[in-house]
Amino acid sequence: MHTVLFKPAHAWQAWSMALRPASLVLAIGPVWVGAAVAFFHTGELPIGLTAMALLAALLMQAITNLQNDVGFTARGCAEVGQHVGLPRATAQGWISVRRVRWVLGVLCAVATSLGLVLVTQRGWVVLAIGVASLLAALAYMGGPKPIAYTPWGELTVWVFFGWVAVLGTEWLLSNQVTVLGACAAAAVGSVSAAALAVNNHRDMTHDRLVGRHTLAVWLGAAASARMLHLWLLLPFVMCGVMWAITQRAGLLLPLMGLPHAMRLMRRLPRCTSGADFNALLFGVFRTELAYATALSGALVGVKLLSA
Fold first, then answer.
1. What are the backbone dihedrals phi and psi of residue 83, each rounded to the nearest 5 degrees, phi first?
2. Can you give the pLDDT at residue 2?
3. Which of 223, 219, 82, 210 has its CA nearest to residue 151?
4. Which span out of 13-27, 58-72, 239-253 was modeled with the highest average pLDDT?
5. Residue 164: count of CB within 10 angstroms of its CB
6. Cβ distance 4 to 137 under 8 Å?
7. How far is the CA of 136 from the CAs of 67, 95, 143, 148, 243, in angstroms?
8. Which of 178, 235, 159, 155 is nearest to 36 (CA)?
């Protein structure tokens, strides 16, 4: 069962709980960085295509969040044990499963329409990216064997919120992918994977009860904590790699966020309640936003100063 933190007074609050707006930074950051990498190489930023890429990323994140909420309820996870994470709107009865699935259908239709528009601009590669992203969003907590029930959740997030999102944006805007883009993708995707790692570490006990064999369940608490440290440190290691590739010291700017990331790592062993873990999760969201902002700003700034 869920621990009820509050009862929403208005429908928009229930939908906000299902959509998890704080997590949308995980969709925004990769597009910012991918656009900045494209600008770094070409000196151009197609505003229309950038806006469509951002909208597509937000739709994918919203679809993932809604599917996660409704899948959790439909599989009976709320009826087993005590779930200490953020409440699920459908599990609490604030929104019906049927209504959420209807909205999911609408969002999938909108995402497909947007994807077809992008295909007319950039061809079949965009189609492949869009189809893979939509299937991954739906498969995370849907289908006969959801990704969320396997140890591959963090890796999937790293791939789609890093490599696919950043390199897909770079390719969409510049018609190329680069080594610098790949490094930036690995960095940004790693922070997103860290967010899921916090969730899975928090939910280990409940996940075992419902048969979810996440990476945290598979590794155990101590190794799961070390994996979270690696996910949080990798972006800052990649700053050095990007500096070595470009010889532009400005790309070290995101290192300013390293102390905050280290504070998050030290906080993990002190988390004893769902509220503690949720505060840590929001700290990772802030790390993603700060890192993506600093890196994209550095890329744009270096390019403008060298023009």
1. -90, 125
2. 47
3. 219
4. 239-253
5. 22
6. no
7. 11, 24, 11, 11, 32
8. 178
